[in-house]
Amino acid sequence: xxxxxxxxxxxxxxxxxxxxxxxxxxxxxxxGFAYGLLDVLNSHFQTVFGIxxxxxxxxxLAYFGAYLVFSPFASLFMERYxxxxxxxxxxxxxxxxxxxxxxxxxxxxxxxxxxCTFVIGCGLSCLEVAANSYxxxxxxxxxxxxxxxxSQGFQGVAxxxxxxxxxxxxxxxxxxxxxxxxxxxxxxxxxxxAVLNILFYFCPLPEITGDALAQEMHEAGILADEQPFxxxxxxxxxxxxxxxxxxxxxxxxxxxxxxxxxxGIGIDKSQASQLFSYCQIxxxxxxxxxxxxxxxxxxxxxxxxxxIACMTFALGVTYGPGKAGVGCLFSLFFFExxxxxxIFTLGTKNLGRHTKRGSALIVMGVGGGAxxxxxxxxxxxxxxxxxxxxIPFSGYTIMGMYAVGMVISQARTGGFRFRTVDExxxxxxELDHSPSPAGGNRESDxxxxxxxxxxxxxxx
Length: 460
Known about the structure:
It is a multi-pass membrane protein. Keywords: Cell membrane, Membrane, Transmembrane, Transmembrane helix. The structure is a single chain. The longest helix is centred in the first third of the chain and has 36 residues, at about 15-50. Helix 1 runs antiparallel to helix 8 and helix 4 (about 85-100) runs antiparallel to helix 8 (about 180-200). The protein has helices at about 15-50, 55, 60-80, 85-100, 100-105, 110-135, 145-170, 180-200, 210-220, 235-255, 255-260, 270-295, 300-320, 320-335, 340-345, 355-365, 370-380, 390-415, 425-435, 440-460. It has 2 domains: about 10-210, Up-down Bundle (Growth Hormone, Chain: A), CATH 1.20.1250.20; about 210-425, Growth Hormone, Chain: A. It is about 75% helix and about 0% strand.
């Protein structure tokens, strides 16, 4: 089958743009809900199956390891069949993995939960390659980070809904030591995936292709995608930064319930799970605050500032006593908020024909969530949960190095900038101001053409 003929975000009408944006944004809720439940299940399974913290992080290993394994396949699939079919594949795997939580709960098999979580992770990796890439290129590059941050905000809404449900149903009464409610929750999750699959089947979704994006860049004089993919260094280092950041974020969340209960301030697991949902609310609020800021502040500069804040508060969680440590944990969730979408947009910027491959590479970075939690869990088991937060600190440090590197790279090519800019529009403006081959001025020629067209329309 030939690759689908596509358009760019600028080719869509306002109605088409709003429709496509809203439909794809709905996908962010699916993996936010699954991720929110995952962190609470981590703690719940410690009680039900009698496993230690390190063993419980097998769920994170399966979930995020799936991103590392399946993202390249998702990229190849969408290169050939387009975004819409990639979304169908992702939603099908998501629903399939959720359905098999039922027999795993029925027969109380921890290995079954780990396997189902891997299948769900494969589905979500496919959805993330499609949705993150689609949203970031659905319009002006100037607002790509803000646009993706807004959509990712709905993932945050779902991620705190998961722990809130869990605090009410998983940890109270007899549910604290059984798996009965887990199977019903995941049956509902499977139903959500099936409904979304049906909606996407009956709804047209404009296909945005790498060739169309490349043409738009080349017309503005940006030829970065003519270099081989392995020379797109901002994307390759973006993979490293995303791996480090996601690993740090997942390690923070995976042990948050344990950390809160061990701070000696009289909080049990049910209350800690509820506080964890408030942490996720803080994260979500941070996302929407980031949307406003990223409309004005350069994404690379913003990521640098937030990286420093994350490093600072990670150390605060490690060494802060009692309520001070919990306060640092809340602050850490706030400053984590913009990191994933900003790294994604910086890493996939100006990739043109390499866009889908680059998107898959950055999404592979989510696999970092499989590495950092076991390291943090081992420290939590042998020393303390508080000391385990030095592992996330290392991840934020790597992310900060990438952010500083991007600021320096931008400064060397176009000067230091505080405000966010549309590079394609700037390049077009430069071309318009340059002399035309006939000795005239491109801008004046363009203006003349536009005036002539307007006058013609008015006469008609």
